[in-house]
Write a structure and sequence with these properties.
The protein is α+β, with helices and mostly antiparallel strands. It has helices spanning 2-27, 37-62, 69-80, 88-128, 177-180, 193-199, and strands at 134-136, 142-147, 159-167, 173-176, 184-187, 207-212, 232-242. The chain has 2 domains: 2-85, Helix Hairpins (Orthogonal Bundle), CATH 1.10.287; 128-242, Roll (Chitinase A, domain 3), CATH 3.10.50.40. Strands 1, 2, 3, 4, 5, 6 and 7 form a 7-stranded antiparallel beta sheet that branches. α1 crosses α3.
């Protein structure tokens, strides 16, 4: 918490200095000199903290928490003059309360987003199931054969090599072996249930499109690029079933 308080105060000071210099800037335009490394370092610190502050205030505003910049500037000036109207203990108390409020609103927003994702996913799955060429398994996994093949199908205990692209329902890509230009190899029983089930349907050499309900993917976990309760769409090429490495011969 001390680190958060210090960072907030530093950020406020940068904002205050910027505001205080606005009037002077109107009267005299002073060129910023960034010739020496020390000047660049000093400017870099200010720019870094300013960027943090700008982002932090925007995030709080999105959550419905608006902080008055004028009061932030006044607090900085009063503290600098040794005339702070809040004791350090009170400052710690109110900033702790602010932190708790932010966390609470973030949790509320995440819960609302997860509910929305679930509803949108269920509607998408219902509509997609009606499309020609789409098959729905007993678990709810949906698949479409993009390119057929006659190769061997893997078992759950096999290791496979694939190329794939994963997207959310809005089409945004969250992962792709194509982008990395390198296939991925993994044991089939160590991935999300939708993959474990789906790839066992694929002959080597084929390409399928899977629409995976959230409960067969990452469920209620929020992974950043993959929000909670997300229905996922994958295009997968099964390149090969990787044979187990032969055991090394006993040394003589």
């Amino acid at each position: 918490m001390k680190k958060t308080i210090k960072l907030s105060l530093v950020a406020a000071s940068v904002l205050a200095l910027t505001a205080c210099n606005q009037e002077a800037a109107k009267q005299e335009v002073k060129e910023v000199k960034l010739e020496t490394e020390a000047q660049q370092q000093a400017y870099g610190i200010g720019a870094s903290v300013g960027t943090y502050l700008n982002k932090d205030l925007a995030e709080k505003s999105d959550l419905g928490i608006t902080l008055e910049q004028e009061l932030m500037i006044r607090g900085f000036k009063d503290a600098l003059a040794g005339e702070s109207k809040l004791e350090e203990e009170k400052i710690r108390e109110v900033l702790t309360a602010l932190d708790a409020s932010v966390r609470s609103k973030q949790e509320e927003a995440a819960k609302a987003a997860a509910t929305k994702n679930k509803e949108e996913g269920e509607k998408y799955l219902a509509d997609n199931a009606k499309k020609e060429g789409v098959t729905v398994t007993e678990s709810g996994l949906q698949y479409e054969v993009l390119s057929a093949a006659d190769g061997e199908k893997p078992a759950e205990t096999d290791t496979v090599k694939v190329h794939y692209k994963g997207t959310l329902l809005d089409g945004s890509e969250f992962d792709s072996s194509y982008s990395r230009n390198e296939p991925t190899t993994f044991p089939l029983n160590r991935v999300i249930p939708g993959w474990t089930e789906g790839l066992q349907l694929m002959p080597v050499g084929s390409k399928y499109k899977f629409t995976i309900p959230s409960e067969l993917a990452y469920g209620e976990r929020d992974l950043g690029k993959i929000p909670a309760n997300s229905t996922l769409v994958f295009e997968v090429e099964l390149l090969e079933i990787v044979e187990p490495k032969a055991e090394a011969a006993d040394s003589e």
